[in-house]
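Today's session is about reading a structure prediction critically. Students often jump straight to the picture, but the first step is always the sequence itself: look for stretches that repeat, for charged clusters, for runs of hydrophobic residues. Only then move on to the predicted structure, which in these notes is written as discrete structure tokens rather than atom positions. Here is the chain we will use throughout the hour.
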Amino acid sequence: MRLLCLLAIPAILCAADAPISSVDKAAMNPSIDPCVDFYQYACGNWIAKNPLPADRSRWGRFAELQDRNERVLLDIIQGAAAKASRTPIEQKIGDAYASCMDTAAIEKKGIDPIKSEIEWIEAMASPSDVVAEVARLHRTGIRVVFAFDSQPDARDSTKTIANLRQGGLSLPDRDYYLKTDARFVEIRKRYIQHVTRMFQLAGESAGVAAQDAQTVLDFETVLAQASVDRVTLRDPAKSYHIMTKPELALLLPAMDWDLYLQGIGAPAFDTLNVAQPEFLKAIGNALPGESLDAFKAYFVYHLLHARAARLPEAFENEDFDFWQRALTGQAQPRPRQVRCVQFVDRGLGDLLGQKYLETAFGADAKARITELVGNLDKAMAEDIRSLAWMGDETKKAAIAKLNAITNNVGYPKKWRDYGSLAISRDDFYGNAARIAEFLHQRQMDKIGKPTNKSEWGMTTPTVNADYSPEHNSINFPAGILQTPFFDAQRDMAVNYGGIGSVIGHEMTHGFDDEGRKYDGDGNLRDWWTAADGTEFEKRAACIAGEYSGFTSVDDVKLNGRLTLGENTADNGGLRIAYMALQNALNDKNAKRDKVDGFTPEQRFFLGFAQVWCENVRPEELRHRAVTDEHSPGRFRVDGTVVNMPEFQQAFSCKASQPMVHADACRVW
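Below is the predicted structure for this chain, in token form.
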């Protein structure tokens, strides 16, 4: 692995006095005016030359890097599977992969592994049986009716509490059940056809299967009608309701809560957070009227869908045909070996992560990334202090929160212990079931315990980064710290535009419309003066309005309120990264020569834009417009640079051109 030499800040360039070629000129379409459509200028040729692979609904620079990481992981896992003498880590990851790849054994077993689970459901004869089955399904990772897990107490993040929230839907969002637009009506029709075929594969006659499929849709529609919309879910205060167990029982009296909690392995507790009490009230009024047969059909379909990847190919194909082909436009599944790598990464991520680090990430890289993060911290502090719209009292609190952020780089401080988890080379179905119960029990074991604020939510090879408001922490997995986000052989300007904007993005999440409601300790607390809170909301409304005007595909607009947090982070993160670059250049008295004809500022913006080059199927765009809090790549680029005078100055844009907004939006 090459040394990550450019991440030392202040930094010198790897190539003595002059940086080598850095911007991906082959990706660009120079016939486009950058002030007219910067995204096409930066990415036009990449888009034209990288058509969507058949096994993708979206293909972009993130996916390119993920593909490279998956090849590294595949080599690691296949090596572990083939070794005669293995460490405990190699045994688990190797045998988990081998069991997933043994399609002959999976086909031979047929539906035998799932038969007993279906029989338990079909044998339900009383309300208590229904409760027991809800608990059993939850324990195995299938969130029917509602979801139950653990999370830090939003108002005292030092402790972890039980958390109950709405759930139980199969389709991606309540809108898929409730909206009468032609596209949603068509999806519901295809959903019934799909569920019918799944029941037939499980042995039902065509007539019975069709009836059961309609029952499943009707049952889930009841849940959808009770569900809160996604924009409302983004407000943490609206999902915080501490209740006692007797108060919970009043919301859904038909549920034997003691039986349920015993069934899921929850420890004793007195209070919990009920995120959406009205959801429980609504289903408490509706579901007791449902027949046992309705619960049976609903449970069996959720079981078949959740287990499809562990069953014979016919189940996998049918599940793919609806959930990927129909909903996202993906033409064919990913190769089996890739799906099995993903199975190991999701289920045994901390074991695989340890092996990944031996190949892809070292202590030197961790130190340099940490130093870069520190430089972005300084730039954000400067940004906060310079805000004309924020008063001194709120600025002081904002700086205190910024200083309290924990930056986790590369990999977690402590790996999970999988010692109690048995993995067998010839039992894919059983391995997946044991992993699901293992992960569920980890959640249950946290209830009533001090919150572990150093815990990660992503695996080490993941090509992503995240901010946790309850932990007030940012996680940068080793998987993302590579090209196109970072490349040791290019100059600092492009690296600041790439990985720097990602770091700035995650920092800004601590101060977006959701993150700003938590203090530096990760507690839900209003630390803003009333006047400053009003000023923030005015500026956030500008960004929400801007992105609501963007058309994702056909007549489908983005939801600027759903994507507000991500758009705020894109805008603030890029500005902070730009400030950090300028500081680094000034600190080193660095040359500001052009490279490949571009100034450092132009290279910075190109480095940012080129991580978002992508092609997306129209079905996927429609799907994401309803469900995704992120805007499509072209709007993450153009929607951000139109608000930056620094961009317009870098490319000498005129006031009348599309990449210049007369009333530019800015929060951070």
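Discussion point for the tutorial: Residues 1-19 have pLDDT under 50 and may be disordered.
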